[in-house]
Structures are given as C-alpha cells and as structure tokens.
Design brief:
Elements: E1 4-7, H1 16-24, E2 28-31, H2 46-59, E3 64-67, H3 79-99, E4 103-106, H4 116-133, E5 139-143, H5 156-164, E6 172-177, H6 178-183, H7 191-204, E7 210-214, E8 217-218, E9 229-230, H8 238-245, H9 249-252, E10 256-258, H10 268-279
Parallel strand pairs: 1-2, 1-10, 2-3, 3-4, 4-5, 5-6, 6-7, 7-10
Antiparallel strand pairs: 8-9
Length: 281
C-alpha cells in the first residue's frame, strides 16, 4: 500500500492541519508551519504544539512534512534578502523539531542571472550556515525544480554539487517532484523513460538519498520549464504515466505528497483516491 497525502492548511491552528489531512484520507501530509507569503512569523503556541502531537499520534499518519515559505531565496546575491532567507531556513528547522516533523523541504532558489555556479555556492553557504546554527535531527530535503530561468536545482547534477558541499551531509536528502522533473526534461510517461530517469537519479544522487516524493501531474510539456501542477492523471504525464510511476518500488516505498489543485473537477480526497487506484491499492 502506498502512503499518500496532500498539502493542507494550518488556518485557525496548526493542530487543525491534522484534522484536515484525516478528512482528506491522508496517510501522510505536508504543511507550511507559518504564513508562507510573509517574512514575519509568530512563535508556536505550546498548547497548539501539544495538540498537534496528540492529533498525529491518534491519527496514525506519518510522516508530517514542513515546506519552506515562498519568499526565501537561498541563491540570491542581494545581501539583506539572503540573510533573511538563511534566518528563515534556520527558524523552520527549529520549528520542525518543536513540532516533531522529520522533514523540511526547500527549493534551492534563483541566481538572478549571476550564473549557476555562483547560485550553487550561495545555496551551499546558506544550508551550511543554517545547519551549523541549528543542531537537531530534522532532515533538510532539497527539491528539484522545473527548469525555469535562473533556477538552481533543475538537474540532478545541480543538486549533487550542492549536496557535495554540505558539511553535515547526513542531515540533507532529496525531495523528488514529478511535475518539476518532467518540466526539466526528465521523461516520466513511459516505462523506459521512467527507468532511464531513475537510473540517472541513482547514478548522480544515489537512490537512498530520496526520502520524499511530491507527486504532481503537469500542465506543461516535457522540458517546458513550466512549474504548473495539475490533478493526477489529467495533465501531460497522464494516467498511464502515473500508473507506470506507481508500479515501481522507488515511488511506492516513499511518502507521496500531492500538491494538486482544488477546483470543480477534483478535490484533495479525489486526488488521493486516484493515486490509490492507479497504484492498484
């Protein structure tokens, strides 16, 4: 049986995210631990934290996952922006530990035209600084990106260079996003394409380093560079693609988080149901 869930809201209380995940039928779930569209964040309320822990224990869902907010850019050359980004990364690592969340997912950012090598060096510096500042057991997962202009992390080689520069190597892993990989040019529709992609991943990054899957269909075509998520099976990867994906141990053995739309066509529970159907569960 696959472990599948969605990204859920923390509106009202972080503890309510667990209830929302249960209602959607999740086995695992992802949240933002704070407002993802601003720099400021309030301290975690001890009562909410306690209830969050209690709700997770009762639910049996695992693992809960935290995602970095939208604003930080670990590859930027703008000094003030970079410092705020590193501080946010450190803060999220602390919040994860308080909440008992084992994984924090981050994008690597954009180098703003200064070049991929410079961008990667900045990401390495940011991660090393945050991990040195916050010494805990939370694993930081570097997420592959869709090949957008000036992006860092669209290729497996990109991520490998960053990982090689991390001093606390055991505290870093990878989150594999299917929509992003497809947008960046990695074929995921056919059995042969998926095999080639996973062989490449294993060769460059090591399969054991992938600890989480973001399972998303794509509105864009192969190699489009477009980061636009679609309902599972309704995008350009398609039902056959996801049936092939979900037949493989690489995907079946890892937590699957859908970051799919909620609209008149389908809700979160609907996407979870489709994933289970295509997985044969």
């Amino acid at each position: 049986m696959v472990r599948v869930g969605v990204h859920v809201s923390i509106a009202g209380s972080i503890a309510k995210s667990v209830e929302r995940a249960e209602t959607a039928g999740c086995d695992t779930f992802q949240i933002f631990s704070r407002n993802p569209r601003g720099w400021a964040s309030r301290e975690l309320d001890p009562g909410e934290v306690s209830l969050f822990h209690e709700n997770i224990e009762k639910s049996g869902m695992y693992p809960p996952v935290d995602h970095m907010p939208y604003l930080p850019n670990l590859a930027t050359g703008k000094a003030e922006f970079y410092e705020k980004s590193v501080a946010t990364l450190a803060a999220e690592l602390r919040r994860c530990r308080i909440l008992g969340i084992p994984y924090l997912v981050t994008h690597l950012g954009h180098h703003l035209g200064e070049g991929i090598e410079i961008g990667r060096k900045r990401v390495i510096g940011a991660v090393n600084q945050a991990l040195e500042e916050v010494d805990n057991d939370v694993i930081l997962l570097l997420e592959n990106t869709a090949g957008e202009k000036n992006g860092v992390g669209s290729t497996f080689e990109d991520i490998a260079v960053v990982m090689e520069g991390i001093e606390a190597r055991a505290r870093v892993g990878v989150c594999f996003d299917t929509c992003h990989a497809f947008g960046a040019g990695y074929e995921l529709r056919t059995e042969q394409g998926i095999e080639d992609t996973l062989n490449r991943f294993d060769e460059i990054l090591g399969g054991k380093n992938c600890m989480l899957i973001h399972l998303n269909d794509s509105k864009g075509g192969l190699g489009s560079g477009l980061d636009r998520h679609e309902h599972i099976g309704l995008g350009t990867i398609g039902e056959d693609g996801f049936r092939n994906i979900l037949s493989l141990p690489f995907f079946r053995s890892r937590p699957l988080i859908c970051e799919t739309p909620v609209d008149e066509r389908r809700d979160d529970a609907g996407n979870i149901s489709v994933v289970r159907k295509l997985a044969g569960d």
